[in-house]
Amino acid sequence: MYRIGDLTDTSIPDINIGGTLYSLDQLLEKTMVASTNVNTFFVPKAGTSLKAYSYKAGDTVGTVYGWVGGYDANGNLDGSIWLQFYPLNGDADTALMDGSTNSFYYWMVTPGTGISKQALTSQGVPTASQQAADAAAKKADANMSTIDKIGALLKTYAPYALGVGGIILAAKIIPPLLQKNKN
């Protein structure tokens, strides 16, 4: 199982949700909403009959606690990924595996998995491509020389400085001219 802060594998997988890739680490602590009818299970196992809950499109499925790799009928990892949800009572520290409302439950992630992209967007979840673009921009900014950073600041703020300077200059020049015209 993977959670924030205790990742042993730095290659966090991306999952396909409605044709858009999302990094699993961005789904932690986010509320998943079903976009189709889905079933969740008490065990992350292909072909399991230990159904936990059924949800209709538009229903809130739960808040993601983590994710796990699924396994087949022989107990071998099968390459699938399952989202793990907080127990319905919300207490992960005392979670049981007994099928009660105090149990974690799982949703197998497959293409067209039934997760609402709109709900993810409204929670501010970036797509994998947005994350990559942000990381590239940060890296480019970190690699800029001091001169380049000063140039970028001047390019951004020089028009404002010139505008303020012009207003101050006009405030100093115009009143004396108006006084001369009155006399």
Structural write-up:
The chain is of the alpha+beta class and 183 residues long. It has two domains: 14-126, SH3 type barrels, CATH 2.30.30; 144-182. The chain is built from three helices and eight strands. It has helices at residues 117-122, 128-142, 146-182; strands spanning 14-17, 20-23, 31-33, 38-41, 51-55, 60-71, 77-85, 105-109. The protein has a four-stranded antiparallel beta sheet with strand order 3-6-7-8, with no helix packed on it. Strand 1 and strand 2 (20-23) form a beta hairpin. The longest helix is centred in the last third of the chain and has 37 residues, at 146-182. The chain is elongated and about 100 Å long. Residues 3-9 have low confidence and may be disordered.
Integer average pLDDT: 79
Termini separation: 85 Å
Rounded radius of gyration (Å):
27 Å
How many domains, in number, for the residues? Answer: 2
Question: What is the top-level CATH class of the largest domain?
Answer: Mainly Beta
Helix content: 25-40%
Helix and strand composition category:
alpha+beta
How many extended strands?
8
What letter string, H or E per element, gives the SSE order? EEEEEEEEHHH
Sum up the overall morphology in one term. Answer: elongated
Helices, by number, come to 3
Please tell me the CATH architecture of the largest domain by its name: Roll
Strand order of the largest sheet: 3-6-7-8
Largest sheet: 4 strands, antiparallel
- Which residue ranges are poorly predicted, with pLDDT under 50 across at least 5 consecutive positions? 3-9
CATH topology (level 3) name of the largest domain: SH3 type barrels
